[in-house]
Amino acid sequence: MPLASNPLIQVTPGLMIWTIVCFLITLYVLKRFAFGPIQKAIDERRERIRQSIEEAEHAREEARTLLVEHQKLIGRAKTDAEEILAEARRIAEANERRMREELETDRQRRLEETRKQIEAETRRALEQIRLEVVELSLLAATKVTGKALDDSDHRRLIDEAIAELDFSVLEKND
Questions:
Q1: Which percentage of the chain shows pLDDT scores above 70?
Q2: pTM of the model
Q3: Cα(141)–Cα(11) distance, integer angstroms
Q4: How far is residue 70's CA from residue 121's CA, in Å, rounded to a whole number?
Q5: CB 157 within 8 A of CB 137
Q6: Does the pLDDT of residue 169 top 70, yes or no?
Q7: Is the dihedral of CA 139, 141, 142, 146 positive or negative?
Q8: Residues 171 and 122 sit within 8 Å (Cβ to Cβ)
Q9: Alpha carbon 137 to chain centroid distance?
Q10: What is the pLDDT of residue 166?
Q11: CA 57 to chain centre
């Protein structure tokens, strides 16, 4: 079978011209009304995708920046917290030292007051003992001599009796 016998393969110049004209008209109509809007839609979509990618990159960079700032703030907060705790410890230790010093000072003051009171009571007791010794000496002297003594005799006897007594033994027991 010859190739020219098939009507689809036969070259017919009029049909060819009309096919080319229809093709060019269709191409023009498609270019004018279809390819332009389609290309415009594709370009717009491409631009939206590009903008979305840029926005995503911008958002990612902003998120990184915020993350770094957040980490810095957390680090600073930890440092501040550690400083506050250290300061609180220092204050607590200082207060504890101050309280111990105050307690020791108060204890020393009370001990000193107690010592002074004991000394004062000891002196009063010794003075009371001296007075009683004097009275007993006078009483004994009156009974021994059988007469009442005048003031000069009293004074002399008191001085002699006190000179003979050793009160240092009582005073050393403090």
A1: 89
A2: 0.40
A3: 181
A4: 74
A5: yes
A6: no
A7: positive
A8: yes
A9: 77
A10: 66
A11: 40
